Amino acid sequence: MQPTPPTPTRRIVIAGGGTAGWMVAACLAKTLGRKLDITLVESDEIGTVGVGEATIPTLLLFHELLGINEQEFMAATLATFKLGIGFEHWRAPGHQYIHSFGLTGRDHWTAGFQHFWLKGRERGLASAEYGDYCTEHRAARENRFAHLPKAGMNYAFHLDATRYARFLRSFSEPLGVKRVEGKIVDVLKHADSGHIRALKLDRGAEIAGDLFIDCTGFRALLIGTTMGVRYEDWSHWLPCDSAVAAQTASVGEAVPYTRSIAHECGWQWRIPLQHRVGNGMVYASRYLDDDAAKATLLQRVQGEVLAPPRVLKFRPGQREEAWRGNCVAIGLAGGFIEPLESTSIHLIQRGVIRLLQLFPSDGICAADVDEYNRQTRWEMKHIRDFIVLHYHVTQRDDTPFWRDCRSMDIPASLRQRIELFQESGRVFRAPNELFAENSWIQVMLGQGIVPRRPNATADMMGDEELRHFLEGIRMGVERTVMPLPRHEAYVREYCGAV
Ligand code: FAD
């Protein structure tokens, strides 16, 4: 293969118009739009995956970068607020905990808050629930929400994915993004460099470009079919490979958290929006067939089913390279872990921000491509470990699925984290990792790990001092949360004001 020609990057072609395609279009148009000629190709006939409705707080940063007004966004996507994820039946049938987005307690110079709470529990001085020391956790439990001043609540959104893509389209087109409707039937390459030259559409048009962003979803038409980048399969660690999704009418008040309800061979999501509820069963096809999954979902949803359930198949894993030649894969084309911690939209955002940071204005350079791929791989592996934790650390042994999850081999990086926490209650976050210490702690405690030897600093406090320290935090959380309005009433008023 010839060396890459140093062509300046001016013409960007985005293949695909799902959440990934339109997030990339919006971000590039807003930041580099005047320098670029951006075309997005999508096919209404093929459609989008249509799920992906729970997000994490980093989406606020993306909207800030774009200058998106939160009330307008929420009104357009019929969004609600999200303070975390409630995990039901994960540790054991009947058990539940919340992984919230907030900070729990207050750290000390020498030790994290969990050590003081663990010592407090040992001595009968602490509340049984770790989350009682966290505003977001308590607000989620109490079904309350409001924007708070100063170090307010850390929140994300539940949104309607189809409406979100439409909203981003209406944001991007006035900034100059050209949308082309059509089916990509061929991807044409330069004979010398092996780079992509153009997309050929069903009606004969050719869309030429310098840089191609593959947002074609699981099809991965450019990065997979054309560029031949292999897929690293993680299904030996992440057993679920299927989902069935259904939307239902709302019954009852919308809670400000995603419900993740473990079942016999996977889990079920419930995502409350303003106008409906998104539901789905994630399952391992080795243990449950599609018809049984559909039937089980329909039995377990609440409210009228608004459309027939849809089955989606996926392979957990990632592309060995997200960027090869002049093709960058963002979104499902680049990989998919699974939806448990709502990380895919975040990964789209990271993919496009990273592209901006390494943007090949003066031509593509191998060192930039390598760095992009190195960072992407690292980021995905960290998230993968966090998800595997939920399946592996469980007391459930009621079905072959859970017995296999408990006994499966896990990545060495995860094993090391679990052992450290089990032994001493310690967690350390490496730079640029998505999940902070408090996320790991909440899930490890929630899944049932009890550290053997919490940090000795907490022993230095006498009973009275420790009680005072813990109660001060808990009461502060109660004073903040209890006067807040009900979540749904707040959303109605907030969005009604647009
Ligand atoms: P798609 O939505 O599939 O879009 C692909 C685009 O490519 C479409 O516009 C399509 O028309 C176009 N296309 C494909 N082939 C062609 C062709 N030949 N010609 C022209 N156009 C073409 N993420 C979260 O962050 N939170 C969640 O809660 C969450 N839940 C999920 C649940 C499930 C079961 C699954 C499978 C995923 C979930 N995700 C979630 C992931 C999320 O749905 C995706 O990351 C997000 O929707 C982005 O998808 P995409 O744009 O990459 O692909």
Automatic annotation (TrEMBL):
It comes from the Bacteria. Pfam families: Trp_halogenase. InterPro entries: FAD/NAD-bd_sf, Flavin-dep_Halogenase_NPB, Flavin_halogenase, Trp_halogen. This is Tryptophan 7-halogenase. It comes from Pseudaquabacterium terrae. The lineage of its organism: Bacteria, Pseudomonadati, Pseudomonadota, Betaproteobacteria, Burkholderiales.
